[in-house]
Amino acid sequence: MLCIVSFIVLSILGIFSASNRQLAREALDCVLRRVTLRPCNTGFDEKIKAKILGVVITRSEAGARFLNRHFELLSWVAFFLLLGSSVMAVRGVYLFYVTGSCNGLNNSAFCVFDPTGQNNQVSTLGQTCSLSDNPERGVTLKNVDLSDWPVLNAGASNQIVMVGCYACDYTRKVYPSIRALVQKYRPEFRFGEYQVKEQTDLLTRVGYCVYHADPEKYWAMNDVLFTTEKANLDDPSYVHQLLASLGLDANQIETCASDPQTQTRVEKLLNEIRRTNFPGTPTIFINGVPMVGPKPYRVYAIQLEGLFYWMK
Is-above-0.90 flag for pTM? Predict the structure, then answer.
């Protein structure tokens, strides 16, 4: 199996060296013969063995004797190690494509394609944006009452449930992708706004009142709040102007937002959001599958279309 390992290694080295390209051609000939259970006719295996032993013997005669005695066995070991690493590499590429991580959905372990872990980062309650150590543990929609969550396309066969925060950079990053998915696939879309960085639920109460006054304008308001400067989110005058620009009675909405009954209903909604055990924002459920952090658009689309099973 030395010829197989050598062919792969020398093919890569041959990109930079003509001599290695010649050796790679000899290795390929050897591979083609070995897979048909014939011996190499180029003496390639002996040539490589001699080169390796020549290097080893200058450092350790005992090591060279051991290598010479067990060369075939060690060649097989090298082959299976190469085969195993190749399988893991292909698996990592596949997982990154379908989950956004080389290690599986919501896994925050190091991934060479996402070295900073951006696809798993969230804004945690009362903190700045950070990486959850084990973000998917216990996250679920089971026993969560979604009836008070703002909804688009109610009753559709597919479902997206999103927990987000207007001030969270990661939610702001992924929200356009989710809206694009909703527009393309027309799933049932429920949104729960949870202010993880602020000590007030004002925007949640305003959103509750707007949704019950005019659901269509609620989604228009949502789109604006996720694209405006974050400083505007703390400015009551900006929120007042936004409501007016949407054709709403701003004074009426603000009165509704300050009503104790509204506070009670909003607190119930926030409690249902907490029941999901979400670790931070954004947390998105595609047909019940939790996805923590801003995944690439393709990951959501793959799950929504049911094209692949998740691999852990």
Answer: no
